């Protein structure tokens, strides 16, 4: 019989193999927090090891670490709170279907997509037609909401019958989106499945936590995934 610690990892592997939208029943806040912490520790260490090994093999390092050239509180808030929140809304919130959830996700994903047509420092660059980009994204979100209202039953059936496809889609999309953290070259593009594999692992874990325990738990998981490397890099800079 697996104990309480190993059972959550067995459930995770079963979920990744065959995703389902069943929420964990009769689970206390303490149990959810405990399991989320366990998953965070293992997934963080695993993705850290994978990232180091893949960076060594492919000779590709993330531009994110290089961009933290001086520590300040605003950068901490952006990296450890705002970015995780925005990305969780985009990629994990819609794993539970509602008109609002899918519309918010669509708006943010539209914003990311539109940004690729502009020369920007990052997705949070507030220059270069910032407000038109925001307005266009909101328009896509509103359009999605209206479609959800009109075809509500169809969307519900889609989630009922193809939840596994939806889960894999958002997980892979999350991983692939992070290829923008690397210098864009043909070799980087060809190595995308390998380079983004650590992000896919963390995406699977985050998706599991979101579906089983709730949105706040996957947000905290993501936040701490960003916070620890940020604090380590910032500490080195301040020394």
Note the main sheet: none
Alpha-carbon distance between the termini?
49 Å
Identify the overall geometry. Answer: globular
Content of β-strand: under 5%
Number of helices: 11
Helix percent band: over 70%
The unreliable regions are none
Topology:
Layout: H1 4-17, H2 29-58, H3 63-67, H4 73-91, H5 99-115, H6 130-150, H7 152-177, H8 186-190, H9 192-195, H10 197-212, H11 215-238
Describe the structure.
The chain has 239 residues and is mainly α. It has a domain at 4-8 and 26-96 and 161-238. It is 76% helix and 0% strand. It is built from 11 helices and no strands. It has helices spanning 4-17, 29-58, 63-67, 73-91, 99-115, 130-150, 152-177, 186-190, 192-195, 197-212, 215-238. Helix 5 (99-115) runs antiparallel to helix 6 (130-150), helix 7 runs antiparallel to helix 10 (197-212) and helix 10 (197-212) packs across helix 11 (215-238). The protein is globular, with a radius of gyration of 19 Å. It starts with a helix and ends with a helix.
Keywords:
globular; about 75% helix; 11 helices; mainly alpha
Short description:
It contains 11 helices and no strands.
